[in-house]
Amino acid sequence: MSDDSSASAGMPGPAPDERPHPDGRRNAQGIRIDPEAEAEPDSRTAVVSALVEHEPGVLSRVSGLFSRRQFNIESLTVGPTTVEGHARITLVVEETDPGIDQVEKQLAKLKPVIQVGEIDDDAVQAELVLLKVRGDEPDKVHAITQMYDGQTLDAGPRTITVQITGDQDKIDDAVDAFAQFGIIEIARTGQTALARGDTPTTPGEEPGHDKSPATSSDEATDDQTSTTHEQ
Amino acid sequence: MSERAPPEVTDPDDADSPEAPTAESAEETTAADRTTPETGAESVVTALEQAGAKTLFGVQGGAIMPVYDALYDSALSHVTMAHEQGAAHAADAYGVVSGETGVCLATSGPGATNLVTGIADADMDSDAMLALTGQVPSAMVGSDAFQETDTTGVTAPITKHNYFAGDAETVGDTVGEAFALAAAGRPGPTLVDLPKDTTLDETDREPGPAETPETYSVREEPNSEQVESAARAIERAEKPLLLFGGGVVKGEACEEARNFATEHGIPVTTTMPAIGSFPEDHDLCLSWAGMHGTGYANMAITHTDCLIAIGTRFDDRLTGGVDTFAPEAEVVHVDIDPAEISKNVHADYPVVGDAGTAIEQVDAEMSRSPDTREWAQQCESWQEEYPLTYETPDDEPLKPQFVVEAFDEATEDDTIVTTGVGQHQMWAAQFWTYTEPRTWVSSHGLGTMGYGVPAAIGARLAADDDQQVVCFDGDGSFLMTMQELSVAVRENLDITVAVLNNEYIGMVRQWQDAFFEGRQMAADYQWCPEFDKLAEAFGALGISVDDYDEVADAVEEALNYDGPAVIDFHIDPTENVYPMVASGGANGKFALSEDQL
Ligand SMILES: Cc1ncc(C[n+]2csc(CCOP(=O)(O)OP(=O)(O)O)c2C)c(N)n1
Question: What does the pLDDT read at residue B22?
Fold first, then answer.
């Protein structure tokens, strides 16, 4: 391939600007776009549920995945299910649609992850918050607690601790309402969720008595956003 | 999986001809006739034998000693490396060349951390590799004991999966599972951390067959609707272009991919890891694309209206800025890993499945070939417009490209090339005509300097006896792992290392010249040792070459030498790699010289 005759510097061929160039373009997600149109999709909040093998290191693998890939996680909760050896991780993520897709697919790749699915907006969602407020006005605190169907867990001369559960809006409102007493400490669990009615929370999820992990690939959704564990 | 015959078993005691198998060594105890394992360590070894491992690369040490002790009675061949990084790269390259899972071993702590670079390298390049690491006894884990490192913690982000094996009863199953998982679906490295008590404890349990875990299911058969849409998109394309990625090689789909291209007359470009998947001397071949890929490949990517990408993860060294990547193209993306679909470049027509199966199904689904005559001609004219060339006036110092070509001419088509990372790597990829898969062994995703020599060792042990192995290295890269020459000498491995010595860490110097106004900070290696003498000190053949007229003889002498040979080629220190797409730039705007950057 050597070209002994060429003595000029550089290689043959026209310079970059003299070559024909198509005028198409893609956006940051690699999607081909109309140059005039909106280029970047908006992000949204999604609740993702993952059924995992309840083994040491699962949570660190999942959280490690999110920090490594720079996914925007709002909250993450985890707890055992009725199937022995399984746990459910519920994640709230704030991402663009392609980002949410990646969250699900990257999660599904992890070996201990059995099923992954995004939960519909109408899913049953709840969070628990513990609030410790100043005890100067116990009656008022009690009234607000009742308003939010909460419970008083501890009441002393100086502090009162209450528990509220509910969806994220309700919790946010409650926190605002308690702010008037001066919140001393707060602990929120982050949201957890289940799909409504007969719909399984993750695709193909079996009812609780089955001890073997659900692996049936025929139940897998077939498009590229397949969220069962396939790769 | 590879069709090649398995490499022959080495008798570690036969130092004179370690490659020559002896009848007894091959006949020694194997899993089949050995009594059931008695310790966790024996179970580990039995599991490796059952899984089909043949050659292991590693370094001894306190926490891994029980496993080595069990190897004493095994027919598995073990190569002691000079450094654990070398063990990981050798195992990786062994896997790349053989198509099997390469295995490396290290002790806890520093042994394990020395493997990390090699594991990360295998992870980025999706190479099937199993790393076994010793660990302090379970009771001491967490106490900052001597040589304790949280190995599973350290390697979690760079492995496909890793295991802390806490039980002698199940450790064999775990090792078998890790071995199988490494190769399943999209390959990658796995690791099993072996606390010393696990390997010392007694067990009489025979490990089961090496199987992937139940939670890991791979979609081999693509979905028929996806296949159909992809076929329609290709049929209607006017300027279709095939882009083969490393997945075509790893998925053993080269034949299907080649047939598809030739049957439909679609031009082919490859990524660097896929070099050799399509013969570079074929009319339809545009060679590899990306930062230092050919001008014609990058022109084709820029102008194609249908990019059929198979088994690639669209690395930024390939795409440049995604906003300017294949801007006109509908993208068909075939991949076995669904997470690669639309990760970097949006796939208009995704096909999730095994590469070979997917190609065959898309092919069967197509009722006609696209009319590519005009487009193929256009691609051909780009080949004439942007040939890969370099200048060789007599009075100039030796050009590295000439050296690469001299080796290419002097060797057979199935010769295996390994490289370090830098300019020499690019020249080795550009000026050698690859025609066979698994003959190009390099560090792509991680870009690890020092990959070349240990990779040549791994490649040599996986290759057929009559296949040659040539390593192109830079002076900087060579210095990082050249201690592995001691291994090549001890094992009498027939490899040739061509150091393209520019007394610079040249690729850095090229970037400093282009992007940092020539401020050559820390790029100078003029204190390089004399590599030929260094080779001799190791017991290898050493040759030094300064001029064009010495090249052919030196190449011949080194290739004919039965054992490791090193040629120190003193090349033009100012030579640069072109074409070049500026990092994050548009593929079609590759520079042909520095003033175009
Ligand atoms: C382990 C490692 N450290 C640093 C780098 C950054 N780097 C990339 S190329 C390069 C120069 C390589 O020099 P050399 O091996 O002499 O090859 P040349 O470019 O001169 O052919 C360096 C330092 C790297 N890729 N890997």
Answer: 43
Neighbours of B140 (CB within 10 A): 15
Tell me the nearest-neighbour CA distance from B475 into chain A, angstroms. 24
pLDDT in tens, B538-576: 999 999 999 999 999 999 999 999 999 999 999 999 999
Whose tokens are 């509220």? That residue is A164
What is the C-alpha separation between B58 and B72, in angstroms, rounded?
A: 14
Instruction: Say whether pLDDT at A230 is over 70.
Output: no
Pocket around ligand 1: residues whose beta carbon is below 6 Å from it?
B 420-424, 447-449, 474-477, 500, 502, 504-508
Q: How far is CA B186 from CA B100, B124, B126, B355, in A?
A: 13, 11, 7, 11
**Nearest CB to B322 within list A9, A21, A26:** A26
Tell me whether strands B349-352 and B330-335 are parallel, antiparallel or unpaired.
parallel
Nearest to A30 among B346, B402, B594 (CB): B346
**Tens digits of per-residue pLDDT, B15-41?**
344 444 444 444 455 554 556 889 999
Catalytic residues of B: 84, 146-147, 196, 507
pLDDT of residue A39 exceeding 80 = no
Contacts of A63 in chain B (CB under 8 A): none
User: How far is the alpha carbon of A186 from chain B, nearest alpha carbon, in Å?
Assistant: 31
Closest C-alpha among A183, A204, A7, A43 to residue A114: A204
> pLDDT tens, B277-321?
999 999 999 999 999 999 999 999 999 999 999 999 999 999 999
Q: How far apart are CA A1 and CA B433, in angstroms?
A: 10
Are A230 and B217 in contact by the 8 Å Cβ rule? The answer is yes
pTM, 2 dp: 0.91
Distance from CA of A125 to the nearest CA of B (A): 27
Angle between helix axes A58-69 and A97-109 (nearest 10 degrees) is 140
Rounded to 10 degrees, the C-alpha dihedral B62/B66/B69/B71 comes to: -110
DSSP state of A201: S
Distance B86 CA to ligand 1 centre (A): 17
Cα(A190) to ligand 1 centroid in Å equals: 46
Residue whose C-alpha is closest to residue B333's, from B248, B259, B266: B248
ipTM over 0.90: no
Torsion of CA B380, B385, B388, B389, to 10 degrees: 140
Strand duo A159-166 + A124-134: pairing: antiparallel
Answer yes or no: are the C-beta atoms of B444 and B273 closer than 8 Å: yes
Residue B502 has pLDDT above 80, yes or no: yes
How many A from CA of B458 to the centre of ligand 1?
21
Q: Which two tokens stand for residue B69?
A: 């002790």
- Which residues 117-156 of chain B have a CB within 8 Å of chain A? 152-153, 156
